[in-house]
Amino acid sequence: MLKRHLLAAAAATTLLVSALPAQAVSIAYNANFEALIAPGIAAYEAATGQKVDAIKLPGGDDYSTRIQTDLSAGTAADVIMLDSYIVAEYAGSNYLAPLDDLLKDWDQFKDFMKGPLDVVSYNGKVYALPNGTDVRMLYYNKADFTKAGLPIPWAPKTWADVIDAGKALNKVGVANAFLLEAGTKWGEGTTMQGFYMTLLGADTPDGDRNRLRDRASGKWIGDSPAIRNTLKFYQDVYVNDKISGTAINYAADVFNDTNNAFLAGDIGIYATGNWANDCLWGCGNANQPSQEEKDKLVGFSPWPGSGLPGAKATTNISGGWTVALTAKAATNPDAIKLLEAIYDAKNLGKWTVDTKTLTVRQDIADSDAYKSNPFLAQITAMVADTTGRDTVPGYAKVSALVQDMTAGILDGKSIDDVVKTYHDALVDEFGADAVVTLQ
């Protein structure tokens, strides 16, 4: 009798468990992107009947710390949201699943632009899908340019064109003709908006000659013609031709103070990114001028290459947020379906247009809804040829050393001296076998 009751209870338990909605896949995401992620989850659940275990976490530094802790502890969700700067490091640590084969049968994978996928790649494989990106350019104050007799629109072809424009601006009283971010106060801004944008167009683009790291050998580049050419450009701006004073890189609040100085005409040319279209007037400020009014005040141009034979004509480097699969999810088809639902053209396209985000997909770029934003439509062409940082383990240290190199130039040190200091610091940090000199 007791045995019969136990069997009946077991059967009832089995029925109860089978009636519960399954949790086939889990996701951890940054709450700032709920408008993208939540509809993707809902679409997945509606299509599959499966319940997603969704973990919404506050944004900011604590978010990245939580994800890192979960990955190292082996407790991370199947699907995780990541800032693109950390993708290569996590891929190199075997925390993430490469997506190329997992998404090869998804008909929308082909719509992602090559440049943004390069940002989230490691050793030639894609490890995350980007939801948006940024680009960098040279903004210029149109009132200053008119006063100096410079052409509008302005489209410099070489670094020399930028220097020449700076000299013309100096003559009409613009002492800080060109803000090329330098020194340590800008932090990663110096590396991204200044040094790397220059470096990418500094030499012939054979292999990784214009990068901080040689990806084929896995070694940091301690000395190269591109690094020296880049430092020479910094030297021309701040020391040789002195088209700008060094003090602008040490303002009390470098971001807001320089934004205000640029709008006031005290800075003529500003090396920054597409976010400046809003942030010059206060990031997120609801009372901004219309785009038409902004366009009367400010213009922009792609970053030119050096002009040396064989160098790239224009350059760009990008970041942005992404969604990846953890390594354990590589064999979970539901994790792949969730990723595809989030990045479905309808879901991603609506979020992209609603948030005025620079798209990473050509089909979205071609849509009427996206092209209705004239600024985004104009700058999207820059996305196709962009690249990402060398964000493998150790990158943060290398970036800090790059900032130190530019600070040395501001202080009047020679290129030989700052390069030797940089090279030796790389050797101290990573070992001689991990550092290469290019001729």
From TrEMBL:
Task: Kindly give the Pfam families that the UniProt entry links to this protein.
Answer: SBP_bac_8 (PF13416)
The principal localisation class reads: periplasm
**Which cellular component, as a GO term, is one annotated location?**
periplasmic space
- Keywords from the named record: Periplasm, Signal
**Listed PANTHER family:** ARABINOSE-BINDING PROTEIN-RELATED (PTHR43649), BLR3389 PROTEIN (PTHR43649:SF14)
Give the family this protein belongs to, as stated in its UniProt record.
Belongs to the bacterial solute-binding protein 1 family.
State the name under which the record lists this protein. Extracellular solute-binding protein
Q: Where in the cell is it found?
A: Periplasm
The scientific name of the source species is Devosia nanyangense
Q: Where is the signal peptide?
A: 1-24
